[in-house]
Amino acid sequence: GQNIDQPTEMTATEGAIVQINCTYQTSGFNGLFWYQQHAGEAPTFLSYNVLDGLEEKGRFSSFLSRSKGYSYLLLKELQMKDSASYLCAVRDPQGQNFVFGPGTRLSVLP
Amino acid sequence: DVKVTQSSRYLVKRTGEKVFLECVQDMDHENMFWYRQDPGLGLRLIYFSYDVKMKEKGDIPEGYSVSREKKERFSLILESASTNQTSMYLCASSLGLQGRTDTQYFGPGTRLTVL
After folding, report:
1. Has residue A95 got a pLDDT over 90?
2. Which of the residues in chain B have pLDDT under 70?
3. Which long-range contacts (CB under 8 A, 24 or more apart) does A66-72 make?
4. Which residues from B are below 8 Å from A35, CB to CB?
């Protein structure tokens, strides 16, 4: 089976940096995705990691350590529009589906 | 841009009714998925399909069935709706290849309330 854990809620200040952690325990691994979901909207793709290390994409970066079953999403220069839920998802190596974590609701305060 | 559309944004049904949720994607994606999203539980996979007329059970298939007669359309069916099926239903599609191209594209969601 697969288990993915994320903090439920986080709060940060506009302009700051925030790190959202994701830990996973899976029978296999074939890639990790991060999605952003604003309230009442569909999730949208943010980043993808399959090898260990950091992937940078503008203000957002994502890190993966396969040996530790750990990933984080780093958001820099926070803006009010970054207030959203952030979903971590691991791809099942046996098939074509994904397992999602519970999501982290981030609130950015002025 | 990939577009995934769902037939309704909001739906209210009564217990015991048969409910159809439709999803259409316009990018010739191989894979399509149905999830439900509940507070504190995240996205849970109901069914997915990797080809026309093919389907696989996800984590919570009980009480649901699916149909994929055409590549672009994936339907979720609640044979006899129950109150515990009140939820947000999200459809997604992906190219079906390995790696980054396996990114899922989501529809806007259908908020179903069963009374």
Report:
1. no
2. 1-2, 97-101
3. A66/A29, A68/A23, A69/A23, A69/A24, A69/A25, A69/A26, A70/A21, A70/A22, A70/A23, A70/A24, A71/A21, A71/A22, A71/A23, A71/A24, A71/A32, A71/A34, A72/A19, A72/A20, A72/A21, A72/A22
4. 104
